[in-house]
Amino acid sequence: MIYLDFNRTTPLAPSVLEAMQPYWSTHYMLPGQEHAHAHAVGEALEGARESIAAMAGCESFEIVFTSGGTEANNLAILGLLGAAEPGHVLVSQLEHESVLGPLSGLPRRDPRWTIETIPCAPSGIISPLKVEAMLRADTRLVCLQGANAIVGTIQPVREVADRCHNRGICVHCDATQMFGKVPVDVKHLRADTVAISGHKFYGPKGSGAIYVRRGLQLDPITFGEPREMGLRPGAENIPGCIGLGAAASLAERYCVEANDQLAELRDHFVDHLSEQLPTPPLVLCEASPRLPNTVALELPGDARRIHDSARELALATAQAHSPPDEFTRSLRAIGRSDSQIGRTLRVSLGWTTSNEQVERAASLIAEAFDS
Amino acid sequence: MIYLDFNRTTPLAPSVLEAMQPYWSTHYMLPGQEHAHAHAVGEALEGARESIAAMAGCESFEIVFTSGGTEANNLAILGLLGAAEPGHVLVSQLEHESVLGPLSGLPRRDPRWTIETIPCAPSGIISPLKVEAMLRADTRLVCLQGANAIVGTIQPVREVADRCHNRGICVHCDATQMFGKVPVDVKHLRADTVAISGHKFYGPKGSGAIYVRRGLQLDPITFGEPREMGLRPGAENIPGCIGLGAAASLAERYCVEANDQLAELRDHFVDHLSEQLPTPPLVLCEASPRLPNTVALELPGDARRIHDSARELALATAQAHSPPDEFTRSLRAIGRSDSQIGRTLRVSLGWTTSNEQVERAASLIAEAFDS
C-alpha cells in the first residue's frame, strides 16, 4: 500500500507505542488511587500534559485531555457557549463537522442563537477584514480552523483573533490539522480555545486535548467525578494521554525538519504527475500559505476511478454521500463546481512517505487516466 | 504490591493487549477510508461489537462505543432525557457520580425537571416496591446501578424495570461494576440502556459502550461526522474498541469459573483477617446478593492507617474530601455513620489475585491494628 492519506489518520509512531506500553498492564493504576504506584502514574500524566504544553507554547494547566479532536471541538464550543448569554456566532465555511455540528443545534434549543457562516475566498483563505465586518455587538464566538484538511490552506487566526479580542469576542481554533504539521504556538495564534487530535500526528486514536486560555470560563458537557480542571470527568485514559504527550514531543523535535522534506516530496509528486498527464493537473489554492504535506489536485477525469484501477493507493476523493462531507464542502467553499470536485483528489503525505512512493503514486494516477 | 482494588481499575489482560497491538501502527486506517485495508479495519470493529453483544446478550446494532463508562452514563441519560419532555426522574442513592452528575444539572437548565432520590435499605438493596411507590405520571426515567462498587450489592434491576415498563417508563442501568464480574444478560436485566466500562474488566482505559434497546430514541450529546448509529461522532478509537471486544470475549469465557474462585478467595481473606483481629470485622451487607470479588469491612480502628503501615497494599478507604465520594456516599446510603465509614475498607479481588496475596494482606491489615 502507498498511503497518501495522512490528513485522515496516521499510524502510531513506534516511539509513541513504546511510551504507552508500560501503562496498560504494569503501571495500570489511576492517579486518584491511594498508593505510591498510583502517584507515579499521576506524575507521568502531568509529564505528558507538560509535553503538550511545550509543543503548544502554553502552561500545562491550560491543557485539558479529551477522547479526541471531535470531543475537543465540542467541549470548547459548547463549553464556552454554555457559559455565555445566547447571541451570535460566526463560523468559517471551511470548518469540520465537529465544529459545525455543535453550533447547528444551538438555535433549535434556544432561538436567541444565530449562527452565521463566514464565506471563503477562492484562495482558500478567510479574510480577517471580512470577519471584522461581520462581527456584531452580540457576537459571542468566532470559529476559525488552523488549516484546512483538503486544500491545506493555513488561516490567519491571529489576525482574526486580534480583531475579535478588541471587541471582547472569543475565538475557537480547530487546529487538529495543524498540530504536528507546522509549528503551532497558541500564544501567537491568540485563539482562546484550540483543539488538538492525537491520531492526526502519529499519536493514539482516542486521544486529544484542548488548550483553554488561562482564566477562561468553560462549562463541562459531561459530568461525573471531577477531573481535568473540572472540565472532563471519567477515569483518565492514561496510555492515551501518555501517547499524546510522546507524539507532542516528537512533533516538537522533528516537525520543522520534516516539513522541508514533505514540501519537497509534495512538489516532486506534482511535477512527476504533471509530466505524465496530457493536461497538467490544477493545484488548488497554490498561491496561498499551505500545509507542506497537503495538495488538492484537479484532474482531467473522474478522480474516483483511481480507487478501482490503483488499488495499492490510499488517498482521498469526494464521497457521493449526503449531506456533503468535509471534502465536498471545502471545495465548494473555494468555488469549485460539483463536476470539478468529482475530478479532485487530495494527497496528504507523512513522515514515512518516500520519494519512490510519490513517484510510483504519480505513475499509477497517470495510468488510471490513460486507460 | 498486593493489588486489591480491582473495582477501581484493572490491568489490561495480556490477550487483550495482543488483540489491540496490530491496530496501532499496522492496521491504522479508519473504516470510512476508501481502501481495502480500511474496509478490513471496519470489519474488525464490527467483530468487536459482536463480541460485546454476545457477552451482553443483545444484537450488535444495540451496542454503541464510547470513550468509557462516564461517557456511557452521560450519553444514555442525557441522550434519553434530551429526547423527552421535562418531568420527573428517580435515581438510586447508590449511584456513581457519572449518573448523578448529568441528572443534577437538569433542573438548573429547565425547572420543570425534578430529580428524586430512591433511598436504600441497610441491606444495600434498593426495594422494587419502594421504587414503584415513588413512580409518578410524569416519571421519565429511573436510574439503578447493576452492582455497587463499594459494598458489592447486586440490585434487582429486572424487578424494577418490569414495574417501570408497565407504566411506559425507561430504566438506565449503570452496569460498569457488573460486566465481567458476573454474567449480565441485558435482555434479562430489561433495562433500556446499560453502561459498560472497559477498564473495569481487563479491557483498555478509554473504552466503553452503551447497550441501547432496539427502537429507543436517544439524542447525541456531541456532534460531528455521524458514527455509531448517529449517537457518537469522531474517528473511532479502533484499538480501544478491539480491546473492549477482546475483554468481552474473555469475560464471556471465564467469568463464571473465575467467580467461584473469587468468592472463595474473598471468604478466605475475611476468615483469615477475623482470626487475627481481637474483634472480628463487620462484613457489610453480608446477607445480600453481592459481587463475588468485593467485600466492605468495618474494622476496630481508622482504616486509613493501613495506607501508612502497609505500603505494599492497594485497597480503598474513605477519602476525606468534599463533596463526599462514592465510597462515603454508598456507606452513608446503607446507614453507616461517618465514624464507621472512617473504619471501613473495601477489598476488591481480581483474576490475578492469589491465595498467598489475600493471606498476606489479611496479616498486614491485622498488624496495622496491632500497632
Automatic annotation (TrEMBL), chains A, B:
SUPFAM superfamilies: PLP-dependent transferases (SSF53383). This is Cysteine desulfurase. Pfam families: Aminotran_5 (PF00266). GO terms for molecular function: cysteine desulfurase activity; iron-sulfur cluster binding; metal ion binding. Keywords: Iron, Iron-sulfur, Metal-binding, Pyridoxal phosphate, Transferase. Belongs to the class-V pyridoxal-phosphate-dependent aminotransferase family. NifS/IscS subfamily. Its EC number is 2.8.1.7. It comes from Stieleria neptunia. The keyword Transferase applies. The gene is iscS_1. Signal peptide: none annotated.
